[in-house]
Amino acid sequence: MPQVTREEVYKVLERVTDPELGGNIVELGMVSGVAVDPDGHVEVGIALTIAECPMRGTIEGDTARRVKSLPGVTDVEVVTTAMTKKQRSEVMQTARKRARDDAEPTQVSPTTRVVAVSSGKGGVGKSSVSTNLALALSDLGFSVGLLDADIWGFSIPRMLGATQKLVADDDTKLIQPAVVQGIKMVSTGLIIESEETALMWRGLMLSKALEQFLGQVEWGELEYLVIDMPPGTGDIQMALGRLLPQAEMVVVTTPQKAAQKVAVRVADMARRSYMPIVGVIENMAGFTCEHGETYNLFGSGGGRVLSDEISVPLLGSIPLDPAVVAGGDEGAPVVRADPDNPAARAFSALASALVEVVPPAEDERCTGRIAKLVAQLEEGLEPAASG
User: Are 70 and 115 in a shared domain?
Assistant: First the structure.
């Protein structure tokens, strides 16, 4: 019987893929070692991101079957271990690079900074934050796009006062984004009959709508694309990680600590999708009445607790202010309608803080971004429950 070699074993292991990471275990650096005895016994060491990896059985079984198929192999033993933080960071970088290289082409430039404004649940003012943040970034002199990815619960058109319908260019056949208050904007609210029309779409149609907004809209050269995400961790969130691997997340929460606990879930989803989390935004913080007294109507401390728990900066705390609500209802966001308003100033400070952690592409080299991702992992933001 022929003697199997380590090289042959490594070659066949290239056909074993991690279902969650989407790459083969050799390329991902998950094979910790291969030993071959003269009698045909093969031992394969596999390092998983966590010991309780849900894909453990699948990977072990596939490894054993593939190696056992080689001529000369009499027995296979698969030994699994848990990765170190350094190994996990290397796997994350490889997975992100694969996602970037294999992603379907979109109309969003690779140099555009994509900021996904996310929340664990509805009712935290995420759309108000997205709208005012996009305008504040524009006021800093950046070219900005705003994508309303809350397909069912769209509200951006009303908040910006946009009424025109989306149309396609006759030559390119690409959808032209609406230009409203100096930023480019796309929303399902601009393709339906009226604001009251219900979209009765299932999950697959939601992700297809996002795919169309990214691949068939002529966004042009943007420095920032702010995406108002739907609440939770569903189809849209998973599709974004696949379609725009350069996307980075900010998490919106209220000061209430119960809301912070829900927000952790969306952070966990980002980790599983290998999407960097760049910061937390605390919305609806203290309300200051006309007499100067401040009331913490939604509690206090939730934003700081969340940022500490997921090891990212608290980018800003937006006070609870009726002017934010009124501006959204009237299509006159507070950051433009009343720049001296405390909430408007907080949004402007938020935009500046975001630019500090996610600078324009020309201001930061790739090695800097990688260094930040590795630092996040070392602080405890390693991927959760992946293979």
Answer: no
Contact partners, residue 125, CB within 8 Å, separation at least 6: 252, 254, 283, 284, 318, 324
Residues ≥6 apart with Cβ < 8 Å to 173:
none
Q: Both 58 and 149 in a single domain?
A: no
Buried/exposed 236-262: b ≥16 CB within 10 Å, e otherwise: bbebbbbbbbbbbbbbbbbbbeebbeb
- Same domain? 65 vs 162: no
Residue 253 in contact with residue 306, Cβ under 8 Å?
yes
pTM: 0.69
Q: Which residues contact residue 309 at a Cβ distance below 8 angstroms, ignoring those fewer than 6 apart? A: 260, 264
Asked if 385 and 52 count as a contact pair (C-beta separation under 8 A), the reply is yes
If one counts every other C-beta atom within 10 angstroms of the C-beta of residue 366, the result is 8
Q: Which amino acid is at 171?
A: D
Q: What is the pLDDT of residues 175-192, one digit of tens each?
A: 999 999 999 999 988 887
Can you give the residue range of the structural domain that contains 75? 6-83
Alpha helices in the chain (DSSP H): 6-13, 56-68, 85-102, 126-139, 156-160, 203-215, 235-243, 257-272, 302-309, 322-330, 334-337, 342-357, 366-378
Q: Give me the half-sphere count of Cα atoms (radius 13 Å) on the Cβ side of residue 266.
A: 31
Span 100-122, pLDDT tens digits: 666 667 899 878 999 999 987 77
Q: Is residue 88 part of a domain?
A: no
The answer to whether residues 244 and 275 belong to one domain is yes
